Fold:
Amino acid sequence: MRPRDLLDLLLPATCWSCGAPAGPVAAPLCAACARALPWLGPGEALTRGRAVGRSFAPLAHAGPARDLVHALKFRDAPGVARLMAAHVVLRLPRGLVVPGVVLVPVPAHPGRRRRRGYDHADALARAIAERTAVPVDPLLERRSGSGEHQRGRTRTGRLAGGGPDVRARRAAPPRCVLVDDVRTTGATLEACARALRRAGARRVDAIAYARVA
Ligand SMILES: [Zn+2]
Structure:
């Protein structure tokens, strides 16, 4: 058991979204917030990209879903990734995560990862892997100096169609599923999918926990 997990057991459990007592079972969300999760309908949850084939997000980036994303990103809250993975797997479309698929976390900005010491997309991917019995391979990396901002982005990165400057560390398996916490414009997922295809992937799908409308 990690020290943070132990701390989680010792501290009184409160809801990550509204701060109310989470009840006898130490869940990251109280019952009211769990009921208020903004699930997307099947038509909204599954979309198609260009380099990304199928792109799945079970929830809108709002209310308790947004609060869980925030908890995962900034507070390193134990249990949050596991609950988010449960939400993803509950609504997972058929054929998306199947034997032979490798989950590839969207890489965090190198500076951000150093400051926090952990990577939220990687934590979510590993929690999804635990429930689906497929492997995780963190084979993408961001080139240093390439943030979400134009400043410091290379000319090639800009010309490649937006998103961060990402590359694969080694050859990619034929079928990859990208994992990130939030999908906004889809530019980050597209940039990651292009990098995987350059490294040999033939099919790249994507999972984000929540989608910005
Ligand atoms: Zn609550």
Observations:
- The chain has a mean pLDDT of 85.
